[in-house]
Design a protein that fits this description.
CATH architecture of the largest domain: Orthogonal Bundle
Largest sheet: 2 strands, antiparallel
Number of domains: 2
CATH superfamily of the largest domain: Winged helix-like DNA-binding domain superfamily/Winged helix DNA-binding domain
Order of helices and strands: HEEHHHHHEE
Structural class: alpha+beta
Length: 113
């Protein structure tokens, strides 16, 4: 099926087995109910990924445990691209939860003192 057909099915309530994610870059994946029926409820969470608030909490917990984090570590931890990890870390800096040290590749982040 092409994405346009899936989008229409979802909007019409015809298919509750597929969910839409994202605005600019839309992706489709199986619903939690489908994974439950398949006997694999945790697979839904794995394929869905982490929500932004979860990602922030994961980064903050990592920093609490290890003292600091780099962009590469944040990307690996949250399963993000390097640019997505950078934006996540910058949100935490802007909100006052982290402080950035250094610039570019050598930068790292720690908790606000």
């Amino acid at each position: 099926m092409v994405p346009e057909q899936l989008r229409r099915l979802i909007q019409q309530g015809e298919s509750m087995d597929v969910e839409l994610k994202g605005e600019a870059q839309r992706t489709y994946h199986l619903s939690a109910a489908t994974y439950r029926r398949l006997g694999e409820p945790s697979a839904y969470v794995h394929q869905r990924g982490f929500e932004p608030l979860q990602q922030e909490q994961m980064v903050l917990q990592y920093v609490q445990k290890y003292g600091r984090i780099t962009r590469a570590e944040a990307a690996e931890l949250c399963r993000l691209s390097p640019s997505q990890a950078y934006r996540l870390l910058q949100r935490l800096v802007k909100s006052g939860k982290l402080v950035q040290h250094g610039r570019k590749k050598g930068s790292w982040y720690e908790r606000q003192a």
